[in-house]
Amino acid sequence: MNPYEKKRRWKFFLLIFAIVIGTASVFYSDFFVKKMQREEQVQFQLYVKVTEQSLVMYDDDRFTDLIETITKNTKLPVIMTDGDGLINSYQGLDSTKTNYDVEKQDKKTYDPGYFERELRKMKKQHPGTPIIGLDGKIWHIYHKDSFILTQLRYFPYIQLAVIALFLLTAYVAFSSARRSEQDQVWVGMAKETAHQLGTPISSLMAWVELMKSRFDAEDDPLIAEMENDIKRLEVITDRFSKIGSKPVLEDHVVYTVISNFIQYFQLRTSDKVIFTITGDDQVRALLNVPLFDWVTENLLKNAANAIENEGSITVNIIEHLAKEEVFIDISDTGKGIPRSKFDAVFQPGYTTRKRGWGLGLSLTKRIVENYHSGQIFVKDSEVGKGTTFRIILKSSITYEPTST
Fold first, then answer.
1. Does the residue 60 lie in any domain?
2. DSSP letter at 99?
3. Which domain holds residue 293?
4. Secondary element (H or E) of residue 373
5. Which positions, given as ranges, span the membrane (predicted)?
6. Could you tell me if 369 and 251 lie in one domain?
7. Which of 240, 244, 324, 330 could form a disulfide with 194 if both were Cys (CB 3.0 to 4.6 A apart)?
């Protein structure tokens, strides 16, 4: 199992674990909500019975104190209406909106509309409980859930939202720190590699010059190819040395840059693989040629490795005038990529080869996006038929709209 698969599996397990915790929290809170709701219902029924008895024995002083004590200790918001639907008493409402000083005729904290709004809320939550009123008609007592019960009902969702926000913040912070650490590792390894390659390359150049002079092999084609490979090593060293530094981008014809690299690359690839470059041969873009050759090399190597026997690799260059962009499509007739792996192929460590490190496409994506401000993605792929990668670069030519 490659590192990317392990990371994805751990993410899946953590997600399942978080869902289990969230679900348990919701169900546990719901248990207390229902228990508290039952207790409030019992409390309300007691209030109804006491109120009903107080209406029957309203002139009996023996029960007055007991009835008042029970009703005052009821914390539920309650409203009682008469037979005509008019509010005639209430309990547990907001005192800042129900206070009316009869002697001073002070109405500053009295809000008549508040009673109507509260009554509508109560009717939506619970049906009214009928009792026999003083006039012999059917009166109704309405109530709504207490403030604590209402808060408790929403608490688990608020709790989950806070936990999710905390986890998201922590994930972003740790991902940013990890990405910064990975960048430092990339830069350190790249510069160390460039440093280590410097000495043997210089030695190889000296040995080639010695062979040419000792064996009079100035025009020997084998020596010429050795020189080409040494120059290639110099280019690779230069690539590694540029990692972590801001590369210099220059205006180049995209077709020429890619064509020059293909001429070098196809000599070192099986002759059963046919290379073709098509499209616009004049379109220009800002490129760092050593780094962009690295991109081309990684994509062409992957394409060649995907072709088991005979096949073809096509590079098509398209200019999108409206967006002032350059599209570079690299297609092969290899074994293809499953659609579910379109994003995974760019992850460090992802590879389908037994001896692969899974760093080529990850590095390619960094070079295209971080150094050339472009995009790269799998445009299309079908298992058994082939794959097309697309690179999008900004054109270095600005087109002015023509006036008619």
1. yes
2. -
3. 247-394
4. none
5. 12-33, 154-174
6. yes
7. 240
